[in-house]
Amino acid sequence: MTTPTLARPEAIAAVPRWRTVISVFKLRIGVLIMLTALGGMLIAPGPAPAAWQVVLMALAVLVSSASAGAFNQFVEADSDRLMKRTRDRAFASGALHAGPAWMALIVGLLAAAVAATWAWVNGTSALFLFLGAFTYAVVYTVGLKRRTWMNIVFGGLAGSFAVLTGAAAVDPSVGPQGWLLALVLFLWTPPHFWSLAIANRDDYAAAGIPMLPVVFGVPRAARIVHVNTIALVAASLLPLLYGAGPAYAVAAVVGGAHFLRHSHRLARDPQRRHAMGTFFASMVQLALLIGGVAVDAALR
Fold first, then answer.
1. Which one, of 116, 34, 117, 18, lies nearest residue 68 by Cα?
2. Which residues, 6 or more positions from 6, have their beta carbon under 8 angstroms from its beta carbon?
3. Helices marked H in 200-245
4. C-alpha distances in angstroms, 150 versus 92, 106, 178, 191, 210?
5. Per the domain annotation, does 235 fall within a domain?
6. What residues contact 221, with CB distance under 8 A and at least 6 apart?
7. Domain that includes residue 238, residue range
8. What pTM was estimated for this model as a whole?
9. Which of 221, 214, 215, 205 lies closest to 83, judged by CA?
Protein backbone atom coordinates (compact mmCIF):
# COMPACT_ATOMS: atom_id res chain seq x y z
CA MET A 1 0.00 0.00 0.00
CA THR A 2 1.20 3.50 -0.75
CA THR A 3 2.76 5.36 2.17
CA PRO A 4 0.45 8.12 3.47
CA THR A 5 1.57 11.58 2.35
CA LEU A 6 0.70 14.66 4.36
CA ALA A 7 0.05 17.94 2.60
CA ARG A 8 2.96 20.34 2.34
CA PRO A 9 3.18 22.63 5.41
CA GLU A 10 3.33 25.70 3.17
CA ALA A 11 0.13 24.59 1.43
CA ILE A 12 -1.62 24.27 4.79
CA ALA A 13 -0.38 27.64 5.98
CA ALA A 14 -1.56 29.34 2.80
CA VAL A 15 -5.22 28.51 3.51
CA PRO A 16 -7.06 30.81 5.96
CA ARG A 17 -8.20 29.02 9.11
CA TRP A 18 -11.87 29.75 8.54
CA ARG A 19 -11.76 28.25 5.07
CA THR A 20 -10.09 25.13 6.45
CA VAL A 21 -12.86 24.70 9.03
CA ILE A 22 -15.64 25.29 6.50
CA SER A 23 -14.09 22.81 4.05
CA VAL A 24 -14.72 19.99 6.52
CA PHE A 25 -18.47 20.29 5.99
CA LYS A 26 -18.48 19.78 2.19
CA LEU A 27 -20.89 22.67 1.73
CA ARG A 28 -20.94 22.47 -2.08
CA ILE A 29 -22.36 18.96 -1.83
CA GLY A 30 -24.63 20.17 0.96
CA VAL A 31 -26.10 22.91 -1.22
CA LEU A 32 -26.77 20.36 -3.95
CA ILE A 33 -28.53 18.07 -1.46
CA MET A 34 -30.53 21.04 -0.17
CA LEU A 35 -31.67 21.87 -3.71
CA THR A 36 -32.85 18.30 -4.26
CA ALA A 37 -34.89 18.56 -1.05
CA LEU A 38 -36.47 21.76 -2.33
CA GLY A 39 -37.15 19.94 -5.60
CA GLY A 40 -38.96 17.23 -3.65
CA MET A 41 -41.06 19.86 -1.91
CA LEU A 42 -41.89 21.69 -5.14
CA ILE A 43 -42.89 18.59 -7.11
CA ALA A 44 -45.26 17.39 -4.38
CA PRO A 45 -48.87 18.40 -5.05
CA GLY A 46 -50.59 20.34 -2.31
CA PRO A 47 -50.18 23.64 -0.49
CA ALA A 48 -46.59 24.55 0.27
CA PRO A 49 -45.55 24.95 3.91
CA ALA A 50 -45.19 28.46 5.29
CA ALA A 51 -42.16 30.35 4.01
CA TRP A 52 -40.38 30.09 7.36
CA GLN A 53 -40.92 26.32 7.35
CA VAL A 54 -39.44 26.08 3.86
CA VAL A 55 -36.37 28.02 5.00
CA LEU A 56 -36.06 25.90 8.14
CA MET A 57 -36.36 22.66 6.18
CA ALA A 58 -33.76 23.79 3.64
CA LEU A 59 -31.31 24.85 6.36
CA ALA A 60 -31.90 21.61 8.26
CA VAL A 61 -31.02 19.60 5.14
CA LEU A 62 -27.90 21.71 4.63
CA VAL A 63 -26.83 21.27 8.27
CA SER A 64 -27.49 17.52 8.32
CA SER A 65 -25.58 17.10 5.06
CA ALA A 66 -22.72 19.16 6.50
CA SER A 67 -22.71 16.91 9.56
CA ALA A 68 -22.52 13.77 7.42
CA GLY A 69 -19.80 15.31 5.23
CA ALA A 70 -17.71 16.21 8.27
CA PHE A 71 -18.16 12.69 9.66
CA ASN A 72 -16.97 11.28 6.33
CA GLN A 73 -13.77 13.35 6.47
CA PHE A 74 -13.30 12.57 10.19
CA VAL A 75 -13.50 8.81 9.66
CA GLU A 76 -11.56 8.71 6.38
CA ALA A 77 -8.59 10.89 7.28
CA ASP A 78 -6.14 8.00 6.92
CA SER A 79 -7.40 6.84 3.53
CA ASP A 80 -7.72 10.43 2.30
CA ARG A 81 -3.97 10.80 2.78
CA LEU A 82 -3.42 8.07 0.19
CA MET A 83 -5.26 9.92 -2.59
CA LYS A 84 -3.98 12.97 -4.47
CA ARG A 85 -7.54 14.29 -4.75
CA THR A 86 -8.15 14.24 -1.00
CA ARG A 87 -4.79 14.40 0.78
CA ASP A 88 -5.09 18.16 1.35
CA ARG A 89 -8.38 17.82 3.24
CA ALA A 90 -8.31 19.34 6.70
CA PHE A 91 -8.13 16.17 8.83
CA ALA A 92 -6.02 14.23 6.33
CA SER A 93 -3.42 16.99 6.03
CA GLY A 94 -3.19 17.60 9.75
CA ALA A 95 -4.49 21.17 9.41
CA LEU A 96 -7.21 20.23 11.91
CA HIS A 97 -7.02 17.66 14.70
CA ALA A 98 -9.78 15.03 14.49
CA GLY A 99 -10.48 14.94 18.21
CA PRO A 100 -13.60 14.16 20.26
CA ALA A 101 -14.76 17.80 20.17
CA TRP A 102 -15.27 17.46 16.44
CA MET A 103 -17.34 14.31 16.87
CA ALA A 104 -19.48 16.06 19.47
CA LEU A 105 -20.05 18.94 17.05
CA ILE A 106 -20.94 16.57 14.22
CA VAL A 107 -23.50 14.68 16.31
CA GLY A 108 -24.87 17.91 17.76
CA LEU A 109 -25.44 19.48 14.36
CA LEU A 110 -27.37 16.45 13.13
CA ALA A 111 -29.43 16.24 16.32
CA ALA A 112 -30.33 19.93 16.11
CA ALA A 113 -31.36 19.67 12.46
CA VAL A 114 -33.54 16.61 13.05
CA ALA A 115 -35.11 18.06 16.20
CA ALA A 116 -35.95 21.37 14.52
CA THR A 117 -37.53 19.59 11.57
CA TRP A 118 -39.52 17.32 13.88
CA ALA A 119 -40.77 20.25 15.96
CA TRP A 120 -41.60 22.76 13.23
CA VAL A 121 -42.18 20.76 10.03
CA ASN A 122 -43.30 17.20 10.79
CA GLY A 123 -42.02 13.87 12.08
CA THR A 124 -41.96 12.12 8.69
CA SER A 125 -39.78 14.82 7.16
CA ALA A 126 -37.46 14.64 10.19
CA LEU A 127 -37.20 10.85 9.84
CA PHE A 128 -36.18 11.10 6.18
CA LEU A 129 -33.69 13.83 7.10
CA PHE A 130 -32.05 11.56 9.67
CA LEU A 131 -32.03 8.57 7.29
CA GLY A 132 -30.25 10.61 4.63
CA ALA A 133 -27.40 11.61 6.94
CA PHE A 134 -27.23 8.14 8.50
CA THR A 135 -27.06 6.47 5.08
CA TYR A 136 -24.14 8.59 3.91
CA ALA A 137 -22.23 8.65 7.18
CA VAL A 138 -22.75 5.14 8.54
CA VAL A 139 -24.09 2.87 5.78
CA TYR A 140 -21.85 4.23 3.01
CA THR A 141 -18.75 5.59 4.78
CA VAL A 142 -18.39 3.04 7.57
CA GLY A 143 -20.28 0.00 6.33
CA LEU A 144 -19.82 -0.29 2.57
CA LYS A 145 -17.16 1.97 1.08
CA ARG A 146 -14.22 -0.34 1.76
CA ARG A 147 -16.13 -3.59 1.34
CA THR A 148 -17.95 -3.57 -1.99
CA TRP A 149 -18.14 -1.82 -5.35
CA MET A 150 -21.88 -1.48 -4.66
CA ASN A 151 -21.04 1.09 -1.99
CA ILE A 152 -22.25 4.14 -3.89
CA VAL A 153 -25.40 2.35 -5.09
CA PHE A 154 -26.70 2.16 -1.53
CA GLY A 155 -24.95 5.37 -0.53
CA GLY A 156 -26.96 7.10 -3.22
CA LEU A 157 -30.05 6.66 -1.08
CA ALA A 158 -28.85 9.72 0.84
CA GLY A 159 -29.94 11.92 -2.05
CA SER A 160 -33.24 10.08 -2.32
CA PHE A 161 -33.95 10.71 1.36
CA ALA A 162 -33.31 14.44 0.80
CA VAL A 163 -36.02 14.48 -1.89
CA LEU A 164 -38.38 12.63 0.46
CA THR A 165 -37.59 15.11 3.25
CA GLY A 166 -38.85 17.92 1.04
CA ALA A 167 -41.86 16.01 -0.29
CA ALA A 168 -42.91 14.98 3.23
CA ALA A 169 -42.81 18.63 4.30
CA VAL A 170 -45.80 19.15 1.98
CA ASP A 171 -47.55 15.84 2.60
CA PRO A 172 -46.24 13.25 5.08
CA SER A 173 -47.76 10.45 3.00
CA VAL A 174 -45.48 11.43 0.06
CA GLY A 175 -47.32 11.07 -3.24
CA PRO A 176 -46.06 9.30 -6.39
CA GLN A 177 -44.22 12.34 -7.74
CA GLY A 178 -42.08 12.56 -4.62
CA TRP A 179 -41.26 8.85 -4.72
CA LEU A 180 -40.44 9.00 -8.43
CA LEU A 181 -38.12 11.98 -8.05
CA ALA A 182 -36.45 10.09 -5.20
CA LEU A 183 -36.01 7.16 -7.60
CA VAL A 184 -34.41 9.52 -10.12
CA LEU A 185 -31.89 10.66 -7.49
CA PHE A 186 -31.20 7.03 -6.54
CA LEU A 187 -30.40 6.16 -10.16
CA TRP A 188 -28.52 9.42 -10.77
CA THR A 189 -25.90 8.94 -8.07
CA PRO A 190 -24.05 5.83 -9.39
CA PRO A 191 -23.27 7.08 -12.93
CA HIS A 192 -22.48 10.52 -11.52
CA PHE A 193 -20.01 9.17 -8.97
CA TRP A 194 -18.66 6.31 -11.08
CA SER A 195 -17.68 8.80 -13.78
CA LEU A 196 -15.56 10.63 -11.24
CA ALA A 197 -14.21 7.30 -9.98
CA ILE A 198 -13.12 6.39 -13.52
CA ALA A 199 -11.25 9.69 -13.78
CA ASN A 200 -9.56 8.99 -10.43
CA ARG A 201 -9.23 5.22 -10.69
CA ASP A 202 -5.55 5.13 -9.68
CA ASP A 203 -6.27 7.13 -6.53
CA TYR A 204 -8.92 4.68 -5.38
CA ALA A 205 -6.71 1.73 -6.22
CA ALA A 206 -3.84 3.21 -4.18
CA ALA A 207 -6.17 3.70 -1.22
CA GLY A 208 -7.56 0.17 -1.50
CA ILE A 209 -11.13 1.36 -2.08
CA PRO A 210 -13.10 -1.05 -4.33
CA MET A 211 -14.81 1.48 -6.57
CA LEU A 212 -16.34 0.16 -9.78
CA PRO A 213 -13.38 0.89 -12.13
CA VAL A 214 -10.94 -0.62 -9.62
CA VAL A 215 -12.89 -3.89 -9.43
CA PHE A 216 -13.99 -4.27 -13.07
CA GLY A 217 -11.53 -2.12 -14.98
CA VAL A 218 -12.14 1.20 -16.71
CA PRO A 219 -13.62 -0.04 -20.03
CA ARG A 220 -16.28 -2.20 -18.38
CA ALA A 221 -17.01 0.48 -15.79
CA ALA A 222 -17.56 2.99 -18.59
CA ARG A 223 -20.09 0.68 -20.25
CA ILE A 224 -21.88 0.20 -16.94
CA VAL A 225 -22.08 3.99 -16.52
CA HIS A 226 -23.74 4.26 -19.93
CA VAL A 227 -26.27 1.50 -19.18
CA ASN A 228 -27.09 3.12 -15.85
CA THR A 229 -27.53 6.47 -17.54
CA ILE A 230 -30.07 4.94 -19.93
CA ALA A 231 -32.03 3.61 -16.94
CA LEU A 232 -31.80 6.99 -15.24
CA VAL A 233 -33.08 8.91 -18.24
CA ALA A 234 -36.00 6.49 -18.63
CA ALA A 235 -36.87 6.90 -14.95
CA SER A 236 -36.64 10.68 -15.20
CA LEU A 237 -39.59 10.61 -17.64
CA LEU A 238 -41.89 8.72 -15.25
CA PRO A 239 -43.01 11.81 -13.26
CA LEU A 240 -44.67 13.01 -16.49
CA LEU A 241 -47.20 10.19 -16.05
CA TYR A 242 -48.23 11.70 -12.70
CA GLY A 243 -48.63 15.34 -13.59
CA ALA A 244 -45.13 16.79 -13.83
CA GLY A 245 -45.32 19.95 -15.93
CA PRO A 246 -43.95 21.06 -19.31
CA ALA A 247 -40.81 22.69 -17.91
CA TYR A 248 -39.88 19.42 -16.23
CA ALA A 249 -40.57 17.57 -19.50
CA VAL A 250 -38.19 19.82 -21.43
CA ALA A 251 -35.56 19.54 -18.70
CA ALA A 252 -35.81 15.75 -18.58
CA VAL A 253 -35.43 15.41 -22.34
CA VAL A 254 -32.66 17.98 -22.81
CA GLY A 255 -30.72 17.05 -19.68
CA GLY A 256 -31.11 13.35 -20.32
CA ALA A 257 -29.94 13.66 -23.93
CA HIS A 258 -26.91 15.66 -22.78
CA PHE A 259 -25.96 13.08 -20.15
CA LEU A 260 -26.52 10.18 -22.57
CA ARG A 261 -24.34 11.77 -25.23
CA HIS A 262 -21.43 12.07 -22.82
CA SER A 263 -21.88 8.63 -21.27
CA HIS A 264 -22.01 7.07 -24.76
CA ARG A 265 -18.78 8.84 -25.66
CA LEU A 266 -17.21 7.53 -22.44
CA ALA A 267 -18.34 3.97 -23.18
CA ARG A 268 -16.81 4.12 -26.67
CA ASP A 269 -13.59 5.85 -25.61
CA PRO A 270 -13.01 5.47 -21.84
CA GLN A 271 -10.47 8.22 -21.32
CA ARG A 272 -10.20 10.51 -18.31
CA ARG A 273 -11.39 13.61 -20.16
CA HIS A 274 -14.56 11.80 -21.25
CA ALA A 275 -15.11 10.59 -17.69
CA MET A 276 -14.94 14.15 -16.39
CA GLY A 277 -17.19 15.30 -19.23
CA THR A 278 -19.74 12.69 -18.17
CA PHE A 279 -19.41 13.75 -14.53
CA PHE A 280 -20.16 17.37 -15.38
CA ALA A 281 -22.99 16.32 -17.73
CA SER A 282 -24.62 14.56 -14.78
CA MET A 283 -24.51 17.83 -12.85
CA VAL A 284 -26.12 19.65 -15.77
CA GLN A 285 -28.89 17.07 -15.97
CA LEU A 286 -29.71 17.31 -12.27
CA ALA A 287 -29.64 21.10 -12.35
CA LEU A 288 -32.05 21.11 -15.29
CA LEU A 289 -34.43 18.66 -13.58
CA ILE A 290 -34.57 20.71 -10.37
CA GLY A 291 -34.90 23.90 -12.39
CA GLY A 292 -37.77 22.39 -14.37
CA VAL A 293 -39.54 21.42 -11.16
CA ALA A 294 -39.12 24.98 -9.84
CA VAL A 295 -40.46 26.58 -13.02
CA ASP A 296 -43.51 24.31 -13.07
CA ALA A 297 -44.17 25.09 -9.40
CA ALA A 298 -43.97 28.83 -10.12
CA LEU A 299 -46.47 28.47 -12.98
CA ARG A 300 -49.01 26.45 -10.99
1. 34
2. 81, 87, 92, 93, 94
3. 201-207, 212-216, 218-236
4. 25, 26, 25, 12, 9
5. yes
6. 194, 197, 198, 212, 213, 270
7. 9-299
8. 0.92
9. 205
Total residue count of the chain as it appears in this document? 300
Query: Per residue in 16-35, is it b (16+ CB within 10 Å) or e — as a string?
Result: eeeebeebbbbeebbebbbb
Number of structural domains, the chain? 1
Q: Is the dihedral of CA 34, 197, 130, 228 positive or negative?
A: positive
pLDDT in tens, the chain (300 residues): 444 444 455 545 566 788 888 889 989 999 999 999 999 999 999 888 999 999 999 999 999 999 999 999 999 988 889 888 888 899 998 899 888 999 999 999 999 999 999 999 999 999 999 999 999 999 999 999 999 999 999 988 999 999 999 999 999 999 999 999 999 999 999 999 999 999 999 999 989 999 999 999 999 999 999 999 999 999 999 999 998 999 999 999 999 999 999 999 999 999 999 999 999 999 999 999 999 999 999 998
Q: Is residue 3 part of a domain?
A: no
In a domain, 211, yes or no: yes
Instruction: Examine residue 4 and state whether it is found in any structural domain, yes or no.
Output: no
CATH at residue 173: 1.10.600
Contacts of 169 (CB under 8 A, 6+ apart): 41, 44, 49, 53, 54, 57, 121, 122, 125
Give the angle subtended at the CA of 181 by the CAs of 177 and 184, to the nearest 5°. 145
